[in-house]
């Protein structure tokens, strides 16, 4: 099984054209939002740890805590293994977040090997870590491994944008959204990027939260 990735803006533009051929309702969305940013990152232990640190926190709070961890060198498996819970708590981590991060260290994931594994296998490996759910694993696939066919059906912004795009009477459940978008494959990462951009426009146009 070959691994399909989405690596460059030029490839993204080609995938958008292919997606619009399958789902023409994306054409006006593309006209409105333009070419989305691929938002790729390097992945690895620190990327997942930072995602854990940021869970259920404001961007400002998460950024502040992460900077404190960087300043004290507490962002590598070896440093965390040798640090006490009190030392981690002193940088702003909650008891729950410390448990999550220690679980990530304990699992000792071979991040390089993830690049060669199918999407579902990557999800299975990552979600064995306490504190990593399917959404976080899918974000890792999309932005760290550049996979081409990821639609995060649990994502609120994607559900809201898809509701408008598909003219649905209410926000779709993850199961319903998965069913409605199966035919977007193998371009579902492109659909995700367009839907996130579209959600941003929808939110900005409304006077009350969506």
What does this entry look like structurally?
- One of its GO terms (biological process) is base-excision repair, AP site formation.
- Its EC number is 3.2.2.21.
- GO terms for molecular function: alkylated DNA binding; DNA-3-methyladenine glycosylase activity; DNA-7-methylguanine glycosylase activity.
- It catalyses: Hydrolysis of alkylated DNA, releasing 3-methyladenine, 3-methylguanine, 7-methylguanine and 7-methyladenine.
- The structure is a single chain.
- The protein folds into two domains: 9-38 and 149-205, Orthogonal Bundle (Endonuclease Iii, domain 2), CATH 1.10.1670; 45-144, Hypothetical protein, domain 2 (Endonuclease III, domain 1).
- Helix content is 60%, strand content 0%.
- The chain is built from 13 helices and no strands.
- The chain has helices at 9-22, 26-33, 45-54, 59-71, 77-82, 85-89, 95-107, 111-114, 119-126, 134-144, 156-165, 174-180, 188-205.
- Helix 11 (156-165) crosses helix 13.
Low-confidence parts lasting 5 or more residues at pLDDT below 50?
none
What is the CATH topology classification name of the largest domain? Answer: Endonuclease III, domain 1
Mind telling me the CATH superfamily name of the largest domain? Answer: Hypothetical protein, domain 2
Count of individual beta strands: 0
Strand residue content: under 5%
Feature tags:
globular, Endonuclease Iii, domain 2, single chain, 0% strand, 2 domains, 210 residues, mainly alpha, 13 helices, Endonuclease III, domain 1
